[in-house]
Amino acid sequence: MGLSFPQTSRKLPVILQAEKTECGLACLAMVAAYYGHRVDLNTLRHEHPVSSRGATLGQLLQVADALHLQSRALRVDMEEIRQIRTPAILHWDLDHFVVLRELGRRHARVHDPATGEHRLTLAELGRHFTGVAIESVPGKAFCVQTRQRRSRLRELFAVFPGFYASLLQLFVLSLLIQLVGIGAAFYLQLVIDESITKADVDLLTVLSTGFGLLMLSRVGMSFLRGTVQMAFASLLGFQMAGNVMTHLMKLPVDFFLKRHVGDLVSRFAGVQEIRQLLSEDLITAVLDGLMASLTLLVLFVFDARLALIVTVFVVLSMTLKLGVVAPMRARTEQIMVAEAKANSTFMESLRGIEMLKFCCRELPRIRHWRHQLAEQVNAGVQLRRLTLRVEAVYGVIAALEHILVVTLAARAVLAGQMTLGFMSAFLALRSQFSASVSSLIDRLVQMRMMSLQLERISDITCAPAEFTDFHVTPAEGRICELSLVGVGYCYAGDPRPVLQEVSLHIATGEIIAITGASGSGKSTLLKLLAGLLQPSSGELLVNGESLHAERLRRHRHQCAGVLQSDQLLSGTLRDNITLYDDEVDELRLQQAAAMAGIQNFIQSLPMGYHSLVGDMGSMLSAGQAQRILLARAFYARASLLLLDEATANLDQAVENQVLQSVRALGITTVMITHRAAPLRIASRVLQCHEGRVTEVPREAGG
If one looks up domain 161-461 in CATH, what number appears? Predict the structure, then answer.
């Protein structure tokens, strides 16, 4: 059954998905990398976007063909699965894809893009495998290449004033501290060979005083280095986190719709890991390398034979630790992914706590979270088990080296080839050399692991921003005329149109009501008008000008409204209405609250506009929260007002008051509604049906 292709020694990587529905792309990336075409998910996602519903089998075959992989879909049962050529993509649990790496007599190795590598029994494999597989081999046009878009360290920060001076200070201070440490090793030799042997008390006093002052200076330099390092690390971390956050805020809305909050938080937290490596570990690694080289040179001057033995054992230790970087990296990534999932579930549970309690579903939710926590703990256990094995072997190597060196040095003393003080100094230097090399190896491992953090952050920093500058001069005037010309919209990777061939004109000051069944494209149309989504086809004109990337920010400065996803932020009611405006117009704030019918309630509170509200609106009813959102829209004094079911939670009296406020504004307004009251103030009523927009006669519209 398997396709014929010559076998070579290859390795199947583990590539974990970043978006909820890109497991199929991740599997194809693994298979392509196995044959030599290394392409990261950032590149693959950009070239072959997947819809929020995921990729179908046919779409995966199309992507495989674009990668020049000769692929075919197979339907096999567990009795025939051994005939599939590995690596093969398996359909998993009816809603997922994994890669079958190898199949043994009793166990199978599976690379899951959601959770990493797993060793399963054949019975476990059979419970998850649906019977559909994709078999792939390189086609004639396939070529070995690497196409990866990753962030470079230099892209995460800019050189700030004092950057190089701080680096130089850290380097010089660290160098002096290390040199003092080397000098201290000679203290024992001089005390034993020159003071004790010759019974010279005065020399002992001089040596003790001199080396005591030397060690005090080392303490002072360590304190000074710590102070400089603290300031340098703080500035570097602040700048790096700020740069990543700034780019994150420039990304389009659909970037966030495809990702879990916990995953983004986990990736963003990687900035601090990189900051520590740059501000602390990098300088330490350079100095450890210099000190190890200098100390080794001194050891060879002392005794070349013993120094050679020390060097051999150090090389063995370095080979051991660097040799396990790849499996440690894979397990660390599994921990990060599992932790992100558990955190996402935890945050979702807190946000949905009322629903969970109302439905009495606390225990099922706890079980779901515990399952994800167990994955995180198991991944941590695997990493710790690997670390313990490495530490055990490393301990054996270090013990053998120590015993061998001490034994040979003692024999040299007994044979009169070395003094006792000379031996003590050599052993002290050997200990310092071993410590420097051990620290250097650990730093090198951490730097190799930094590529994992960079790769995860690249999902944010390599994503294309929808605009380049936050500071855009708003358009003058309050004219807002909208025209849609043959506009269509499809979600990425989904050929089915949400909207198709929409053409309409909205005049300045017109109030448009949009009705239609759920899922007919109403909210999508509103997001297109807001510039939150870009048309897949056709053109959107604002004031007669095409709305493209350069004009997005300017257009949004003219927009205000209430969308379905709007929510309150942690802070005061004043902050939520003004959205943290630097120069709050108090009169406009009160007018906006009055227009939304919420001013009396706010004034009845002990703290008034300074009353605190949580991000989940804890003290507010649904109607009150909605009126705060309406006040936010009114405060903006925009030229275009977009309302998506913005009065759904209001009683009839308050709704009528809000609608009269909307009419009094006299600005272009587009409302989505299923209620009669908004239809009565509309100048026109449009209906969405199966992606098409038609005008409803006023009689039918009410």
Answer: 1.20.1560.10
**Contact assessment for residue 623 and residue 648, using Cβ atoms and an 8 Å cutoff:** no
Helix, strand, or coil here: 548?
coil
**What is the rounded distance in angstroms from the CA atom of residue 643 to the CA atom of residue 640?**
10
List the structure tokens of 447: 């730097």
Q: How high is the pLDDT of residue 2?
A: 43
Phi and psi (nearest 5°) for 96? -155, 160
The residue among 446, 137, 459 whose CA lies nearest residue 267 is 459
Alpha-carbon distance of 231 to 227, in angstroms, equals 6
Distance CA 385, CA 392 (A): 11
Tell me which fold the domain 23-147 belongs to.
Cathepsin B; Chain A (3.90.70)
Evaluate if pTM is beyond 0.85.
Answer: no
Is the CATH code 1.20.58.340 the one for domain 482-701? no
The answer to whether residues 253 and 527 touch, using CB atoms and an 8 Å cutoff, is: yes
Instruction: Decide: 636 and 616 in contact? Cβ < 8 Å.
Output: no
pLDDT attached to residue 159: 64
Checking 584-587 for CB contacts under 8 A at 24+ apart, the result is none
The sign of the dihedral angle between the CA atoms of 474, 480, 485, 486 is positive
* Pairing between β-strand 499-506 and β-strand 129-138 as defined by DSSP bridges: unpaired
Tell me what the pLDDT averaged over the chain comes to.
86
Confidence of residue 381 (pLDDT cuts 50, 70, 90): very high
Domain boundaries, the chain: 23-147, 161-461, 482-701
CA distance 39 to 33: 7
Asked about 27 being catalytic, the answer comes back as no
pLDDT given at position 403:
92
